[in-house]
Amino acid sequence: MSERYIASVDQGTASSRCLIFDDRARIVSVSQVEHRHIFPRPGLVEHDPREIWRNVQHVVQDALGAVRLGLRDLVALGITNQRETTVLWDRTTGEPVHNALNWQDTRTVHLVRELGGDDGADRFRERCGLPLATYFSGPKIRWLLDHVDGLRERAEAGEVLFGTMDSWLIWNLCGRHVTDVTNAGRTMLMNLETLDWDDVLLDAMGVPRAMLPEIRPSMEIYGEAGGALAGLPVAAALGDQHAALFGQTCFSPGDAKCTYGTGSFLLMNTGEQPVRSNNGLLTTVGYKIGDRPATYALEGSIAVTGALVQWFRDKLGLIGSASEIETLARTVDDNGGCYFVPAFAGLFAPYWRSDARGVIAGLTGYISKGHLARAVLEATSWQTREVVDAMNNDAGVSLTSLKVDGGMTANNLLMQSLADVLDVPVVRPIVAETPSLGAAYAAGLAVGFWPKVEDLRAQWHKAAEWLPAMEAAQREKGYRKWRKAVARTVDWVDEDDD
Fold first, then answer.
1. Are 20 and 6 within 8 A, CB to CB?
2. Following CA atoms 417, 422, 423, 426 in sequence, which dihedral angle do they give, to the nearest 10 degrees?
3. For strand 339-341 and strand 359-361, is the pairing parallel, antiparallel, or unpaired?
């Protein structure tokens, strides 16, 4: 093993992890701790920021201890994080003023409609690249300011700070109130061209500038950690999907990847100019290296993929672990005509319908738990197909292969289903946890651990590949049935629903 290492913290939707990488980008240690999901009411999803901070400290020290390394062996720490999840805390005490509102939380559905007015979901898209949706941070901030007594006055006075999870961790590590462009770009408050907070957006959303962090590049030394991690340079922060784009070495326009975790996110590098979508995709900042121009991306966001497997396990109890779903799905040859559209938090790309809710369609007396397991896995494939179709139309070229990463890529049946549904090869790299790898790459570049971006390409290696094996007629029939099921999810939420 090499003498010096990079630590990467992946603060995700379900857990916090620390991976230690050597100078050849090989994983030498991993530590992971799950945190609680708090569900006050249907559609509301919260996390305890203090629990997450404790877990992050634990996994860094545990990952080091497992291979008998110390802080002196690390050259830097990179952070990647669940995006849009919103934390507000007291500037003086550092204590959160409310639980974090998770990106899946839908409590802002009525506020989003109000903000859209006559213009609807696209009111702010030209400025920030995003449609109005419950997904993003801006409406979540506004909701907290409107519903927590005295909070707006304190925020306007600069006594209360906002951050996504990267900001929350950097504040606790270094005492600096900063965010990077990829996370800032998911708030609906950053101008896509200037890469700064936009006064028109702030005024419309009702968010005081005084509570916002400074926007910085994705890769630079933000400061040195204190406390138990004293002296460790914190040198990168990227939203998890942007870190995965970087970790998959998608450095050229047209390069694309999809990360399969709690949700799934397909990003395509579009170069130094933002590409506006006409097909329901997001225009977002891919990453920004120091003083270089930002790299932009098109993104298709799918809210529920791995979360559906968790729901199948935890709420229905039909499997004991996530990995068992593949075994159960293989007890049948197909889905039996059953389709599961998991619009638990509305439909994301390419529809952006906050009023949608989940549907199981095609149920008959023939359907068994094996068919349901198939439908759960195929939901991820069909949702990916919708995003790929939209991306092909926006980019003007067709995807020829798909790089994949994330925990769900361990499911071989799902990977074959993806290849069949997309009709392209699906390729998994040796390091499947590419958000962590991307954060490590970014931190390593910031401190000179890896000299050049180009050097990182040589470290990417294919571990597995799945080729299409489905007849075209079967594929198109399945897609037609899927879209019929999707049509039955919309317009479910009424004005008098909580």
1. yes
2. -70
3. antiparallel
Average pLDDT over residues 87-99: 96
Q: Which residues contact 16 (CB under 8 A, 6 or more apart)?
A: 9, 10, 32, 33, 35, 52, 55, 56, 59
Whether the pLDDT of residue 156 is over 60: the answer is yes
Kindly report the CA angle at 160 between 159 and 164, in degrees rounded to 5? 150
The SS3 of residue 158 is coil
Please list the residues that pair with 299 across neighbouring strands: 267, 282
Helix (H, G, I), strand (E, B) or coil at 75: strand
CB 20 within 8 A of CB 7: yes
Residue 76 CA to residue 168 CA, distance in Å, equals: 18
pLDDT for the residue 498: 65
Six-digit token string for 335: 């889905």
pTM for this one? 0.83
Exposure letters 332-361 (e unless 16+ CB within 10 A, then b): beebbebbbbbbbbbbbbbbbbbbbbbbbb
The dihedral through the CA atoms of 393, 397, 402, 404 has a sign that is negative
Q: What is the pLDDT of residues 426-457, one digit of tens each?
A: 999 988 788 999 999 999 999 999 988 888 88
As given in the structure block, the two tokens for residue 41 are: 């009411």
Residue pair 413/328 in contact (Cβ under 8 Å)? The answer is: no
Torsion sign, CA atoms 321, 429, 268, 162? positive
H or E stretch including 140?
A: helix 137-147
- Residues 276 and 298: their CA atoms lie apart, in Å, by 8
Judge whether 444 and 6 are in contact, CB under 8 Å. yes
* pLDDT value of position 313: 95
Residue of 207, 157, 89 whose CA lies nearest to 198: 207
Separation between Cα atoms, residue 146 and residue 167, nearest integer Å: 22
Q: Which two three-digit tokens encode residue 260?
A: 């399969």
DSSP sequence for 255-298: -EEEEESSSEEEEEEEETS----SSSPEEEEEE-BTTSPPEEEE
Q: Based on DSSP, count helices (H) and strands (E) in the chain, helices before strands.
A: 16, 21
pLDDT at 396 over 80: no
- HSE (CB half, 13 Å, CA atoms) of 150? 3
Q: Is the pLDDT of residue 30 over 90?
A: yes
> What is the distance of C-alpha 20 from the center of its chain?
21
